[in-house]
């Protein structure tokens, strides 16, 4: 467990939900109010986005308490940093936890350079439009523990960490350029793996490993071939398979949902209606 979770639970913050991705990165959605919280020397990085309220959240600086919280604001607390917070109202926020090892491994795979140490900059109450889009479109998706959601989450976690490395670290490395897509035999192998794993958790790292590429290079080369990001393509495959099962089998809607990677019938219905314009039940009736 990441230390920040223990700190927040000690200060009576309510953990609404959390998920640990296959790479060890963890997301947590919290709610807190009227509390003083101190973070000291955690051995991991904490990246936070305010989701609701937060207008009465104060951060202690050398010259006193500073307020600047509101929905969409971010705070970055690097490992071993020390900070004090006074939550004088209500606050709902999402935390993204990762380690030096996560960031260094991603940097070395992406840039093909050796990196022995890493330094992130502390940031408080900042605005970042690019990260806000990632959080809202991917990390605030309602069903975190569905296998169907893990592909999107793993892709988003990679995007978040690459953004941290580029914008909030001491590195000054531009993202590498690439030319062309995947070799046909590699693309076919990836598609076969996806079709065989629709009921299971799929992640960007699993597909990238199969292609023997970094996650960054794989995602861009896959999109160059298919015209869709990996998580978009996987979701379409799940839904197309579900549509076929609805027409060709007597399986119940919930059985079809589970066989296509959805543990939640409501999440399945929502995604299905987005693609086909009707609910699964209505689709089956024609």
How would you explain this protein's 3D organization?
- The protein folds into two domains: 3-141, Jelly Rolls; 177-286, Homeodomain-like (Arc Repressor Mutant, subunit A, Orthogonal Bundle), CATH 1.10.10.60.
- 45% of the residues lie in helices and 23% in strands.
- It contains eleven helices and eight strands.
- It has helices at 3-10, 100-111, 129-139, 147-167, 184-196, 204-211, 215-226, 230-248, 253-259, 265-276, 280-285; strands spanning 14-20, 26-40, 45-53, 57-61, 64-67, 74-77, 82-98, 123-126.
- Strands 1, 2, 3, 4, 5, 6, 7 and 8 form an eight-stranded antiparallel β-sheet that branches.
- A hairpin with a 5-residue loop joins strand 1 (14-20) and strand 2.
- The N and C termini lie far apart (48 Å).
């Amino acid at each position: 467990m990441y230390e920040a979770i223990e700190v927040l639970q000690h200060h009576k913050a309510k953990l609404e939900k959390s998920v640990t991705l296959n790479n060890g990165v963890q997301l947590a959605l919290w709610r807190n109010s009227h509390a003083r919280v101190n973070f000291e020397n955690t051995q991991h990085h904490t990246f936070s986005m305010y989701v609701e309220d937060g207008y009465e959240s104060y951060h202690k600086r050398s010259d006193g308490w500073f307020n600047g919280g509101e929905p969409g604001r971010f705070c970055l607390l690097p490992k071993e940093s020390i900070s004090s917070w006074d939550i004088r109202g209500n606050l709902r926020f999402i935390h993204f936890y990762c380690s030096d090892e996560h960031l260094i491994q991603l940097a070395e795979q992406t840039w093909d350079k050796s990196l022995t140490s890493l330094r992130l900059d502390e940031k408080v109450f900042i605005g970042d439009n690019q990260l806000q889009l990632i959080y809202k479109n991917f990390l605030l998706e309602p069903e975190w523990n569905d296998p169907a959601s893990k592909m999107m989450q793993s892709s988003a976690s990679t995007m978040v960490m690459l953004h941290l490395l580029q914008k909030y670290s001491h590195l000054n490395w531009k993202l590498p350029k690439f030319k062309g897509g995947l070799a046909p035999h590699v693309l076919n192998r990836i598609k076969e793996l996806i079709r065989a794993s629709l009921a299971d958790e799929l992640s960007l790292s699993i597909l990238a490993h199969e292609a023997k590429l970094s996650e960054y290079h794989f995602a861009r080369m896959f999109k160059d071939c298919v015209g869709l990001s990996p998580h978009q393509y996987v979701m379409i495959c799940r839904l197309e398979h579900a549509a076929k099962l609805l027409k060709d089998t007597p399986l119940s809607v919930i059985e079809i949902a589970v066989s296509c990677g959805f543990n939640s019938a409501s999440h399945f219905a929502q995604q299905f209606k987005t693609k086909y314009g009707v609910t699964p039940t209505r689709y089956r009736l024609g």
